[in-house]
């Protein structure tokens, strides 16, 4: 439910009744006072408080609700640390069995990141980039890819033959391209269709 009306003898009583009915904490709703309550005289003529509670709808709340629901269905209990600005949102998940959320070579994490991005940007005019991480996986994977790029570039330089790497997602391909963009001996480009698009490292001529 997106909004309800709640009553109580006091503001706090009405608020707690409404929150209980919606199953939400106070920071997830906007509250409008419809009628001010009065105590009356010796209880005679007393009027209850009447409030309207409206569920907040922000990108961060949509991301949190989506991830909480998905991880719950996966049998996982996670806590979320969400940091955001107008252009980007970084979400770090913490909890047990986070390897399940990462998946093979980060495939599960990438899928969750894509689906979370759809929720965050639903109905928005400006696109907000979403990065989903757990256990520092993104940073570790980036360092692995940077090292891989260096090794493969050396092999291509020594052999003089181009080398095609394993299929990678756009995020990982960008790391490889960026790592080797200033390399004096090789160039990079991508070939193939998603999800089998690969980075190709080619020796520079001349």
Summarize the structure.
The chain has 206 residues and is α+β, with helices and mostly antiparallel strands. The protein contains six helices and nine strands. Helix content is 39%, strand content 28%.
Provide structural commentary.
The strands form three sheets. A three-stranded antiparallel β-sheet has the order 1-3-2, with helices on one face. It is elongated and about 95 Å long. The chain has helices spanning 11-22, 59-73, 98-102, 107-120, 137-159, 170-180, and strands spanning 3-8, 29-35, 49-55, 78-84, 88-95, 129-134, 163-167, 186-191, 198-203. It folds into three domains: 3-55, no CATH class; 59-135, K homology (KH) domain (GMP Synthetase, Chain A, domain 3); 139-203, 2-Layer Sandwich (Ribosomal Protein S8, Chain: A, domain 1), CATH 3.30.1370.50. The longest helix is centred in the C-terminal third of the chain and has 23 residues, at 137-159. Strand 8 (186-191) and strand 9 form a beta hairpin. With 206 residues, the protein is of the alpha+beta class. Helix 2 (59-73) runs antiparallel to helix 4 and helix 5 (137-159) crosses helix 6 (170-180).
- Report low-confidence residues grouped into runs of 5 or more: none
What Rg do the Cα atoms give? Answer: 26 Å
**CATH topology-level name of the largest domain:** GMP Synthetase, Chain A, domain 3
- SSE run: EHEEHEEHHEHEHEE
Strand % is 25-35%
Q: How far apart, in Å, are the first and last alpha carbons? A: 67 Å
Query: Would you state the CATH class of the largest domain?
Result: Alpha Beta
Q: What is the CATH superfamily label of the largest domain?
A: K homology (KH) domain
Q: Say what oligomer this is.
A: single chain
Identify the overall geometry. elongated
In what order do the strands lie side by side in the largest sheet?
1-3-2
Average pLDDT, rounded to a whole number, is 90
Number of domains: 3
- Sketch the major β-sheet: 3 strands, antiparallel
Structural class: alpha+beta
């Amino acid at each position: 439910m997106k909004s309800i009306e709640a009553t109580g003898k006091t503001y706090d009583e009405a608020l707690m009744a409404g929150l209980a009915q919606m199953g939400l904490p106070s920071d997830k709703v906007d509250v409008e006072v419809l009628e001010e309550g009065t105590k009356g005289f010796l209880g005679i003529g007393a009027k209850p408080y009447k409030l309207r509670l409206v569920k907040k709808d922000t990108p961060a709340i949509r991301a949190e609700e989506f991830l909480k629901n998905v991880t719950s269905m996966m049998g996982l209990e996670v806590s979320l640390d969400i940091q955001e600005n107008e252009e980007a949102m970084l979400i770090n998940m913490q909890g047990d069995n986070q390897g399940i959320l990462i998946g093979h070579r980060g495939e599960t994490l990438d899928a969750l990141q894509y689906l979370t991005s759809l929720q965050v940007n639903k109905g928005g005019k400006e696109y907000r980039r979403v990065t989903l991480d757990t256990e520092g996986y993104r940073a570790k994977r980036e360092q692995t890819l940077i090292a891989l790029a260096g090794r493969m570039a050396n092999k291509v330089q020594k052999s003089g033959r181009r080398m095609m790497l394993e299929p990678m997602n756009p995020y990982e391909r960008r790391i490889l391209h960026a790592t080797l963009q200033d390399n004096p001996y090789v160039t990079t480009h991508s070939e193939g269709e998603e999800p089998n698009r690969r980075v190709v490292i080619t020796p520079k001529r001349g």
